[in-house]
Amino acid sequence: MMGGGIFGLLFIGLLFYFFFMNFHQSNNNWSQHYKYKSGNEESLETLKMRFANGEINEEEYIRKKSIIQEESFATNLDSKAL
């Protein structure tokens, strides 16, 4: 008979448990920290940060935001046409 008995099965079960919990947590961390963002989303975030830091004024922020959103709209139309 095998030498481990119930303790061997318990040990193997714990290994599987920790493996799957670690895998699950690593997938959650990846999806939260490395989400794919389109170029327009990144541009809007950069623009918001520049406005918040006082690098640009409100008028420039609004003007650039509308340009980025128009580009996003045009890109969406082009991709739907394909």
Task: Please provide a written account of the structure.
82% of the residues lie in helices and 0% in strands. It has three helices and no strands. It has helices at residues 5-33, 39-52, 58-81. Mean pLDDT is 76; it is low at 30-34.
What's the topology here?
Elements: H1 5-33, H2 39-52, H3 58-81
Rg estimate, integer Å: 25 Å
Query: How much helix, percentage-wise, in residues?
Result: over 70%
- Number of helices in the DSSP assignment: 3
Could you tell me how far the N terminus lies from the C terminus, measured between alpha carbons in angstroms? 65 Å
What does this entry show, briefly?
The protein contains three helices and no strands. The model is unreliable at 30-34 (pLDDT under 50). The relative contact order is 0.07.
Question: Keywords for this structure?
Answer:
single chain; 82 residues; mainly alpha; 3 helices
